[in-house]
Automatic annotation (TrEMBL):
Origin species: Melioribacter roseus (strain DSM 23840 / JCM 17771 / VKM B-2668 / P3M-2)
Limits of the Motility protein A N-terminal domain: 4-93
Pfam families registered for this protein in UniProt: MotA_ExbB, MotA_N
Name of the protein this chain belongs to: Chemotaxis protein motA
Topology in membrane: Multi-pass membrane protein
Annotated transmembrane regions: 27-48, 172-191, 203-220
UniProt entry keywords in alphabetical sequence: Cell inner membrane, Cell membrane, Chemotaxis, Flagellar rotation, Hydrogen ion transport, Ion transport, Membrane, Transmembrane, Transmembrane helix, Transport
Length: 284
């Protein structure tokens, strides 16, 4: 939502400022400049990105419009679900939770956490780790290494998406200059047509520079920054899950494991000790 608002604010601010200064919007509609800059930018992505990265770019771009920050309630639901699951394991044994791990969407415990169930990355991270625990006795330090390796792999795999978009954003001012130089070449060829024709061609050439700078700093680079935060937030959520599992694997009761995981949540959305305690005890 905020991404759409931000795009609208940038666009409206530039247009209104131009109109207030006495500008004519028709002058900014230079199709040739859009084709030159847009086509060159898309081509540079195709040159720099292998097919697998292109798929990730097209898959992740829509996520910035959905919002990716989990709420305090989301974290409480997830920690509560984990606590209930491990309490069941304490009472009935680890094998009793196998059905919840195999089909988390149908689990009356795990399905209550939308933050976990609706994200395949976090869901698979949790369930696959639990399957390793169910398969045999794994030392906590080995379990920690296993989870750290998956988190690191996720970050290494997805960071190139924002980095690639960012590099394209950095190149846009240069592509705007390319479009402007082409416009100057056309201008030099029309000097004999008179001052009015030359003025139109110069204006069109300058629009290329304008578009390159605006697209870079007003849209593409901010989008790259947003995608970076998407990956960072999900990696942090995986670390929260890791903290809970590891704390339980080391012999701590579910409530203590939940408290350890709570402290790894960023302060903006971290529930208080009392809020988590009341949720785990079924109090409002």
């Amino acid at each position: 939502m905020f991404v759409i608002v931000g795009i609208a604010v940038v666009f409206v601010s530039v247009v209104v400022g131009f109109l207030v200064a006495g500008g004519n919007l028709v002058v900014l509609i230079q199709i040739s400049e859009f084709i030159t800059i847009g086509g060159a930018a898309i081509g540079s992505i195709l040159i720099a990105s292998p097919p697998a990265l292109l798929k990730k770019i097209t898959a992740q771009l829509p996520t910035i419009f959905k919002g990716h920050a989990a709420s305090k309630e989301d974290y409480i639901e997830m920690l509560k679900a984990f606590s209930m699951l491990f309490l069941t394991a304490q009472r009935e044994g680890l094998l009793a939770i196998e059905k919840h791990i195999e089909q988390p969407e149908k689990s009356e415990i795990l399905s209550k956490s939308k933050l976990l169930i609706e994200d395949p990355v976090k869901k698979d991270f949790f369930c696959d780790t639990m399957k390793v625990m169910l398969a045999g006795s794994v030392p906590p330090h080995e379990l920690e290494n296993l989870m750290d390796a998956e988190i690191e792999t996720y970050e290494l795999e997805n960071k190139p998406v924002s980095e690639t978009i960012g590099r394209v954003g950095d190149s846009l001012p240069g592509l705007g200059i390319v479009a402007a130089v082409l416009g100057v070449i056309i201008t030099m060829g029309s000097i004999s047509d008179g001052p009015e024709a030359v003025g139109k061609h110069v204006a069109a050439a300058l629009v290329g520079t304008f578009l390159g700078v605006l697209l870079s700093y007003g849209f593409v680079n901010p989008i790259a920054a947003n995608l970076h935060h998407v990956v960072a937030d999900k990696a942090q959520e995986m670390k929260i899950i890791k903290t809970f599992i590891l704390a339980y694997a080391k012999g701590n009761p579910p409530f203590v494991a939940a408290e350890m995981a709570r402290r790894t949540i960023f302060s903006d959305h971290r529930p208080t000790f009392s809020e988590l305690e009341n949720a785990l005890r079924g109090k409002k």
